[in-house]
Amino acid sequence: MPNFGGGELLIILAIVLLLFGVGRVSRIGGELGQAVANFRKGISSVEAEEDTAAE
Asked: b/e for 14-31, b at 16 or more Cβ within 10 A?
């Protein structure tokens, strides 16, 4: 697995910004954050159902 430092990450970020633009990158970041939040809600609801069924 590659070990990226701060300089490499900045270069990758600059390339992504050039390819997609600031607006699209921020929208993708927001959607990714929302997807992670929904995933966590789904996992916690499944765990709550399992706890309820175990009782």
From this structure: eeeeeeeeeeeeeeeeee
- 6-20 helix and 22-54 helix, angle to the nearest 10 degrees: 110
Query: Which sign does the torsion angle of CA 31, 26, 33, 28 carry?
Result: positive
Burial class (CB in 10 A: 0-12, 13-18, 19+), 55: exposed
Identity (one letter) of the amino acid at 44? S
Contact (CB, 8 A) for 17 and 25: yes
Q: How far is CA 23 from the centre of its chain?
A: 17
In tens, the pLDDT along 1-55 reads 678 899 999 999 999 999 988 889 889 889 999 999 999 999 998 888 777 777 6
